[in-house]
Structures are given as C-alpha cells and as structure tokens.
Write a structure and sequence with these properties.
Elements (H helix, E strand, L loop, with lengths): L2 H21 L7 H19 L9 H20 L6 H65 L3 H22 L4 H16 L3 E6 L10 H26 L4 E9 L2 E9 L5 H5 L18 H11 L3 E7 L2 E9 L10
Parallel strand pairs: 1-2
Antiparallel strand pairs: 2-3, 3-5, 4-5
Length: about 325
C-alpha cells in the first residue's frame, strides 16, 4: 500500500483516539463513532492538499515520532480525560506537522543529491566526448589528406560531411556555455536523438547568460526539455511520426525570452488549468509525480519572470520571459 495512504490512515486513527477522549467529557452519545467521523472529515481533504513524502526521513526518525505519539496518547488516557484534552490534541498535531516537514525536507534533499549526481555524470559524459573528438581530430585530418593525395575528392567530401555532422551535435550544446549548461543540453540532445526525436537548438546567445545560478538554470532547462521529450515520445508512439523539440533563446527589449515547442497529445482541461500552479499535475501517465512544471514556475517566479503556455493543434509552446538584469561581476545588461 502507498506510504502516504498508510500515513493518513494512521493520522486519522490517532486523531480519532484523541477526539474520543475529549468527547467523553460531553453529553454526546456514541463518542467513538463521532470521533472517527470527525477525523475522517478532517484528514481526507488534508491528504489531498498537503504535499507529503511519507517515510522519506527514514525509519529511525519516523519510528521515534510514532513512539512519542503513542506515549502522548497513553499520558492523555492516564491523566483521566478532561477538557484539557484539547491541549493534548494540539501537541499531537504539532508532532505530526514536524513529521510531515521532516519527511518533505528529506525527500527534497534526496532529490537534490540525485540531481547533482546526474549533473556530474552529464558533465563527465560531455567532456569525455569532447576529449575523444579532440584526440581523434588529427587522425581525421590525416585520412582526409591521404584521400586528397590519391585524388579521391568525392570520398574526401563524403568523409568530411560525416565528420562535420558528428561535430555539429557536440558544438550545438557546448558553444559559449558553462560546463553545467553544456552538459544538460548535450544530455537532452542525446536522449532525444536516441528516441528518434528531432531536437533543435536555436540560440541567439548562450543560455548561460540567463541571470540565475547554475542550480536554478540546470533545473529549469532540465525540466523544460525533459517534459518536452516525454511529451514527444508519447506523441511519436501514438502517431508513428517523428516528433520535434525546438528550444529558442534570444533577447528583446530588456527581456531574455526562452521558448520551447514540442509535439504533444491532447491535454485534459483539468490538467491544463493547474499545470504550472501546483504539484501532482502531469500530462504523463504511470508513476509520474507532476513536479517538473511547478518547479519551472517556482524558478521563474523567484527571478521575477513571466511564464505563458499554449497548447494548440497538438503542439505545446512554453514561453518564459526573464528581465535582463546585470549580474554581479558582469558587464552585461
């Protein structure tokens, strides 16, 4: 059973037990039934609205908090039920608030560590490719020299065309970019081409010029491109045609404008209405958590930008606008 469901069932039972002790001091009949009903009414909407990653803080921490709750409930029972039971309820609620906060913080930290590991692997892979291409460059020049000496101009032209095409893939990702940004762009390009998706980067200037730190920049680009590739993969699977992702970046009238267009299957209206405003809304099926779109919105809001999106004729277009502020130590406006 899902950990979150188990947690909320336990929370409802705990609340029902405390409410039972409270209702014993009233003239209301059947306090156990009423306490369970109240607990269910309170916990059901809370389970839908409160983000929770139950158990993420680890078994030891959660076990300790459960033990504290059991001891608190036992103390409330032994103290003989009085109207002061309301204080015991507040104490129990405070402990559960602490448990939810600990689990969510632990989950967020774990995701951040996983992202850092992924970024390191992406950077290592990108620079491995660059080193390999650089190492083999003289060999390719030697082959071209021999072919030209033999008068095999056609073969030399074909060989040069293949060579330029292979270098173009890497150059699209790394020209003028920081290592972290080059790594994420190259990784997403590779992921797309491996799935048969056409990935096009139309960048008037390096994405690294965006006025945000590396962590936010990588998270922004990673989520934008990852969402687009996932949508393209589903569209491609159903339509049997090649899907396309186009990432554009340019500067106009004091604004950095980042646009991402991709093929997409129809999106339910209920998902579209809250796509970038809350967690848990995903256009993808299965076990997708719907975190990426909210993360994009949070980063744009943090940097005083504006987000807009349109879904029309099976194409999804995301447009992000950020003020072109001057970063510390930079002469760029």
């Amino acid at each position: 059973m899902n950990r979150n469901i188990v947690y909320w069932i336990g929370a409802a039972l705990l609340m029902a037990a405390h409410l039972y002790l409270l209702l014993l001091n009233t003239d209301i009949g059947f306090p156990s039934l009423i306490s369970i009903l109240i607990a269910v009414v309170i916990c059901t909407p809370a389970a839908r609205k409160i983000p929770l990653r139950a158990g993420a803080a680890g078994g030891r921490m959660n076990g300790l908090l459960v033990l504290v709750q059991v001891l608190l409930l036992a103390a409330a029972w032994l103290a003989k039920p009085t109207l002061l039971e309301a204080l015991w309820i507040l104490a129990a609620a405070g402990i559960e608030y602490s448990r939810i906060k600990q689990d969510n913080e632990a989950y967020a930290l774990r995701r951040e560590v996983d992202h850092m590991k992924e970024q390191r692997e992406q950077m290592n892979e990108t620079f491995r490719i660059v080193r390999s291409e650089r190492h083999d460059f003289l060999k390719h020049v030697s082959v071209l020299h021999i072919l030209l000496e033999k008068g095999e101009d056609g073969e030399a032209g074909r060989y040069l065309g293949e060579l330029v095409e292979s270098y173009k893939k890497t150059n699209l990702s790394i020209k003028g970019e920081k290592g972290t940004v080059a790594a994420i762009l190259h990784d997403m390009y590779r992921r797309g081409t491996d799935k048969g998706i056409a990935v096009l980067y139309d960048l008037d200037l390096p994405l690294s010029t965006l006025p945000m730190d590396d962590k936010d920049l990588v998270a922004l680009l990673g989520n934008v491109l990852s969402n687009s590739l996932d949508a393209c993969e589903e569209w491609q699977h159903k339509k049997g045609e090649q899907a396309t992702v186009v990432l554009q970046f340019y500067k106009r009238s004091g604004l950095y404008i980042l646009t991402c267009k991709n093929d997409s299957l129809p999106i339910p209206v209920r998902v579209v209405d809250s796509l970038f405003h809350s967690y848990g809304n995903s256009t993808k099926g299965g076990d997708h958590e719907g975190l990426g779109t909210k993360i994009i919105q949070d980063i744009i809001s943090k940097h005083h930008g504006h987000l807009d999106f349109v879904h029309s004729h099976e194409q999804f277009t995301l447009k992000l606008k950020l003020p072109a502020v001057v970063r510390a130590g930079s002469g760029e406006g």
